[in-house]
């Protein structure tokens, strides 16, 4: 589904991604871990199409098409979804309106009929079974005044609504209380399917206890330095990143 | 009267003499001293230049270089259907239509009025309602340093007169539609409005400036609004003339004890717009909301000039002006608050927020506080920003196309201002007008 080949990206004059290679197949869950500032969010944003990050080398293929020249909105239509590490507040724009615009853009792209407000409300009710959210949050302006946890849940709710095929979760678990973490994990698990893939960026094992990854990768200084199965996450938690940093240095 | 053509100061003065003779038989002779005083004021002042402190940012040369024809009553009226697009849906109104500055009863509808209420053209009022007019007409607007209001006063012949006696609620808003139909030579009109609201009365008046033709029209407007004790008055001004139009208007509000006035301006049309708002809180416990949204593109120039005077103690004023500027347009917000020495416990607040959508667009924002009392609360704040890039990206990452995302953000910004409009059908209608402005070719959203 997704193939990242030798991806280099920089912001201003600083290189942040320094040659990433990663293949994600449908149905798989990949976890990316790594120290602060190593480039995890940058990778997520590059996949979503943020123009701040300039790709200097490499390719990103989605179902065989290089998507790097494609606008962010079309990437979303093609099924890429990124849950933001820091979801953006948009005062004055009602969450429901925003979500309906988003869903209808994707439906339109896929040749489906756009949903009218009433139909949309029904659809939302259906999705609220997958990830609980409150009517109050739906009525309010997008993320405005939401607590940290509420913002993260709203991201997952959007994901459930938009039904992407590639879900990139950037530290969705940070800032969640235990119940909310469970809720988010249940939502993700409910969405797991043979056609859908996940990239879960996290610092902690705890989300991975619920959403068990097929692969764990470690990103250090703009490169994936180590990959393994789910045990790798446990090992990292125990030994810290210095362990991979050192081992990768010794390997080099 | 053969065509009166007005351009430089001399031609206005010559024209005035002929204008005076032509209206002499109308039973308006009692106005003559007022007109004469006004024209000599104009003669003394001349048109302001950018050396004038209050006109620093606005060069009126486009106006003074144009020869305007003083409009006559139209011989061929536009068809009613042509005006339908200016109707506010789901809102019953007393409707007064002015074609090129002249009241047109055929296109207006003033239904049955409550006892004592007068809603009529100024032209009729001048001959029929002298005793109601005389104590108020031109008693409030300050001509001493205002060439345009002086000209208006000299040349006034029509406009709306609304009189609401005490303890009376006007059952529906008054919608005053000023339509310019010109297609060829530039025209000038001097709409003159007087709204007198008695003690404990309630009224809503909507002034709406539109164009049917593509020609140049200069609306030189003065509105005087007297809010009696305990009255509740809503005033709206919608400027949506074509983009060749000039519109210079002065709204002078006189507020008596415990009165509450809100005035809202939505400006999207015109080449050069000067929007003077001058409330005077002249009785304890008054409150005034001054809300505005101005949106300009191309080479439009919109100058908003507020002068809020607190004369009496315990009054509140709230100014909220929001600007959106695209293209090479220029916006100005000048907000002066004067707190006179007896106006203790004044609570005055001013907010001006601006969005610049292009590199060439600009805004000058200038707050001025002049405080002569010691126990007052005055705050002001102005912001100038661009569209929030991260919000745009967030929306795009959720499949919302860039132009749509921009329109959503702009509407949210404009909505901050529009949401203060209590009259729901009008608010919904204006939201539509604004949305259309964003999505039309007026705005380069790409
Ligand atoms: N817009 C930007 N401007 C300047 N520097 C940036 C920008 N975005 C990222 N960086 C820098 O790039 C590096 C990688 O940042 P990134 O956000 O990808 O890290 P991360 O791995 O997600 O870290 P964390 O675990 O703290 O979220 C950091 O040093 C950061 O300061
Ligand atoms: Mg990060």
Summarize the structure.
The complex is a heterodimer of chains A (252) and B (446). Chain A has ten helices and twelve strands. With 252 residues, chain A is α/β, with parallel strands linked by helices.
Strand content of chain A: 25-35%
Low-confidence stretches of chain B: none
Order of SSEs of chain A, N→C?
EEEHEEHEEHHHEHEHEHEEHH
C-alpha termini separation of chain A: 30 Å
Overall pLDDT metric of chain A: 92
Kindly name the structural category of chain B.
alpha/beta
The number of distinct structural domains of chain B comes to: 2
Strand content of chain B: 35-45%
State the major sheet of chain A.
6 strands, mixed
Number of strands of chain A: 12
Proportion of residues in helical segments of chain B: 10-25%
Task: Describe the protein in words.
- The complex is a heterodimer of chains A (252) and B (446).
- Chain A is α/β, with parallel strands linked by helices and 252 residues long.
- Helices cover 40% and strands 28% of the residues of chain A.
- In chain A, a hairpin with a 2-residue loop joins strand 4 and strand 5.
- Chain A has a six-stranded mixed β-sheet with strand order 6-9-10-3-11-12, sandwiched between helices. Chain A has a four-stranded antiparallel β-sheet with strand order 2-1-4-5, with helices on one face.
- In chain A, helix 6 packs parallel to helix 7.
- The mean pLDDT of chain A is 92.
- In chain B, the strands form two sheets. In chain B, strands 1, 2, 5, 6, 8, 9, 11, 13, 15, 17, 19 and 21 form a twelve-stranded mixed β-sheet that branches. Chain B has a ten-stranded mixed β-sheet with strand order 4-3-7-10-12-14-16-18-20-22, with helices on one face.
- Chain B is built from ten helices and 22 strands.
- Helices cover 22% and strands 37% of the residues of chain B.
- Chain B folds into two domains: 279 residues, no CATH class; 57 residues, no CATH class.
- By secondary structure, chain B is of the alpha/beta class.
- In chain B, helix 1 runs antiparallel to helix 2, helix 2 packs antiparallel against helix 7 and helix 8 packs across helix 9.
- Chains A and B meet through helix 2, strand 7, helix 3 and strand 8 of A and helix 8 and helix 9 of B.
- The complex binds adenosine-5'-triphosphate and magnesium ion.
- Adenosine-5'-triphosphate binds next to helix 1 of chain A.
């Amino acid at each position: 589904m997704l193939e990242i080949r030798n991806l280099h990206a920089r912001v201003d004059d600083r290189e942040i991604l320094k040659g990433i290679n990663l293949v994600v197949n449908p149905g798989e869950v990949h976890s990316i871990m790594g120290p602060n500032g190593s480039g995890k969010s940058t990778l997520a944003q590059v996949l979503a199409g943020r123009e701040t990050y300039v790709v200097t080398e490499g390719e990103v293929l989605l179902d065989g098409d290089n998507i790097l020249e494609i606008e962010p909105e079309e990437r979303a239509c093609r099924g890429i979804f990124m849950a933001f590490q820091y979801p953006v507040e948009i005062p004055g724009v009602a969450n429901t309106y925003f979500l309906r615009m988003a869903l209808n853009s994707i439906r339109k792209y896929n040749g489906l009929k756009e949903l009218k407000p009433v139909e949309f409300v029904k659809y939302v009710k259906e999705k609220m079974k997958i990830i609980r959210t409150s009517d109050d949050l739906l009525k309010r302006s997008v993320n405005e005044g939401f607590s940290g946890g509420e913002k993260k849940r709203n991201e997952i709710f959007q994901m459930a609504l938009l039904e992407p095929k590639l879900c990139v979760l950037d530290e969705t678990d940070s800032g969640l209380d235990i119940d909310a973490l469970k809720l988010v994990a249940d939502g993700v698990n409910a969405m797991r399917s043979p056609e859908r893939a996940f990239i879960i960026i996290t610092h902690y094992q705890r989300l991975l206890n619920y959403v068990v990854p097929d692969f764990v990768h470690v990103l250090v200084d703009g490169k994936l330095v180590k990959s393994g199965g789910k045990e790798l996450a446990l090992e990292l938690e125990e030994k810290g990143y210095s362990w991979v940093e050192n081992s990768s240095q010794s390997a080099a | 009267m053969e065509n009166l053509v007005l351009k430089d100061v001399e031609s206005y003065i010559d024209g005035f003499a002929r204008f005076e003779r032509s209206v002499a038989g109308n039973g308006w002779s009692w106005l003559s001293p007022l007109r004469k005083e006004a024209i000599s004021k104009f003669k003394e002042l001349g048109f302001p230049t950018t050396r004038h402190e209050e006109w620093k940012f606005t060069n009126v040369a486009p106006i003074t270089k144009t020869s305007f024809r003083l409009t006559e009553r139209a011989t061929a009226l536009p068809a009613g259907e042509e005006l339908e697009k200016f109707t506010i849906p789901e809102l019953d109104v007393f409707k007064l239509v002015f074609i090129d500055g002249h009241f047109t009863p055929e296109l207006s509808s003033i239904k049955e009025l409550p006892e004592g209420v007068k809603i009529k053209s100024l032209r009729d009022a001048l001959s029929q309602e002298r005793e109601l007019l005389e104590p108020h007409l031109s008693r409030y607007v300050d001509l001493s340093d205002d060439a345009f209001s002086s000209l208006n006063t000299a040349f006034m012949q029509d406009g709306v007169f609304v009189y609401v006696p005490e303890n009376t609620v006007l059952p529906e808003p008054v919608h005053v539609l000023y339509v310019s139909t010109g297609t060829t030579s530039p025209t000038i009109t001097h709409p003159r409005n007087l709204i007198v609201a008695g003690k404990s009365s309630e009224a809503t008046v909507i002034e709406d400036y539109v164009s049917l033709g593509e020609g140049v029209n200069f609306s030189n407007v003065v509105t005087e609004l007297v809010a009696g004790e305990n009255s509740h008055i809503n005033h709206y001004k919608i400027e949506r003339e074509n983009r060749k139009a000039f519109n210079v208007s002065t709204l002078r509000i006189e507020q008596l004890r415990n009165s509450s006035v809100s005035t809202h301006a939505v400006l999207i049309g015109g080449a050069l717009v000067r929007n003077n708002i001058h409330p005077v809180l002249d009785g304890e416990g008054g409150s005034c909301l001054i809300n505005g949204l101005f949106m300009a593109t191309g080479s439009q120039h919109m100058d908003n000039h507020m002068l809020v005077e607190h004369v009496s103690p315990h009054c509140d004023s709230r100014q909220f002006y929001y600007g959106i500027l695209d293209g090479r347009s220029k916006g100005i917000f000048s907000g002066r608050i004067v707190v006179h020495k007896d106006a203790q416990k004044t609570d005055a607040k001013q907010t001006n927020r601006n969005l610049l959508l292009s590199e060439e667009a600009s805004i000058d924002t200038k707050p001025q506080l002049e405080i002569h009392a010691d126990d007052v609360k005055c705050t002001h704040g102005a912001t100038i920003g661009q569209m929030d890039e991260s919000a745009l990206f967030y929306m795009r990452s959720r499949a919302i196309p860039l132009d749509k995302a921009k329109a959503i953000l702009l509407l949210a910004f404009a909505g901050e201002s529009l949401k203060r409009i209590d009259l729901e059908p009008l608010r919904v209608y204006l939201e539509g007008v604004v949305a259309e402005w964003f999505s039309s070719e007026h705005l380069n959203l790409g």
